[in-house]
Specification:
Blueprint lengths: L1 H7 L1 H5 L5 H13 L1 H19 L7 H13 L23
């Protein structure tokens, strides 16, 4: 029964979200269960790698590539762009 509960807590363990006493208890249980120990180790390594990885850069070029791909697959998209500043009417100055 406890083994099932421990397996459900592995994701919290991997993200370092467990309280210290529960974390220690889970690590003690992993000594007797090689499958649990493997899951804990590999998932924690995966989470650490993902947290260290930098965010992907979304550039104007990426945006245009995505739009072209969507257009080529038949999507009817009308992106909303703000009106450029040079199209604004200028008001006469009084005074």
């Amino acid at each position: 029964m406890k083994s099932e509960i421990y397996k459900k807590l592995v994701d919290l363990y991997a993200g370092n979200e467990l309280p210290a006493e529960l974390n220690d208890q889970l690590e003690m249980a992993a000594f007797n269960d090689p499958e649990l120990a493997h899951d804990m180790a590999t998932l924690r390594k995966t989470v650490d790698i993902l947290q260290r990885d930098s965010e992907p850069e979304f550039t104007e070029e990426s945006y245009q590539r995505i739009l072209l791909k969507m257009y080529s697959r038949g999507a009817a998209i009308q992106p909303v762009a703000p009106d450029p500043a040079h199209l604004q009417y200028s008001l006469p100055m009084q005074g």
